[in-house]
Amino acid sequence: MGRHRVKTDYEEVRKAQILENQARLASVGLSKTIAELRNITGKPQTEKKKHNKIDYFSTPLRRSKRLKGGNDSKVEKSSAEETNKPKRPTTAFFIFMEEFRKQYKEKHPNNKSVAAVGKAAGEKWKSFSDAEKAPYQAKVEEMMAEYQNKMQAYNINKKQQAAADVSALPRALSLIAD
């Protein structure tokens, strides 16, 4: 109860101050309140700053899934299935780069910049004519023929495994049903 009386005393004091201020303003000839006068004088009213919140719900994965590594299982499954798949051969430029890198290191033993080697190799490759590029392209064609043979064998093997899985499916279902 003591708090309530203090609060009412404060409210009464505040109302008395407001009335005094209004009386002073009326004696000067103004009938406006202090809040209206503040707007006239142009004092800017402070506005609360809005904080930029990160919206985790609009991101592709929610934060909890990102921390747990969500949706990686699909990627792992597809990469696990493709481990036996043959790799595509490199391009003629990369075959050239292997040789050029060795030569460049012999000429410039103190150079440790990978970018400098790549830039020099690119400039030299651009300056080559078709005749100079022909040996590298011939190697790529050989590698591509070998790759296509391996891919055909891989696809045949993959189809055979799929057929074996399909033929084993009714037997597996019958074992589960029993």
From TrEMBL:
Its main location: nucleus. GO terms for biological process: chromatin organization. InterPro entries: HMG_box_dom, HMG_box_dom_sf, HMGB_plant. Residues 69-85 have a biased composition (Basic and acidic residues). Belongs to the HMGB family. Residues 137-164 form a coiled coil. Residues 41-88 are annotated as: Disordered. Keywords: Coiled coil, DNA-binding, Nucleus. The keyword Coiled coil applies. This is High mobility group B protein 3-like. The gene is LOC107818633. One of its GO terms (molecular function) is DNA binding. It comes from Nicotiana tabacum (Common tobacco). Residues 86-155 form the HMG box domain. PANTHER family: DNA-BINDING PROTEIN (PTHR46261:SF30), HIGH MOBILITY GROUP B PROTEIN 4-RELATED (PTHR46261). It comes from the Eukaryota. GO terms for cellular component: chromatin; nucleus.
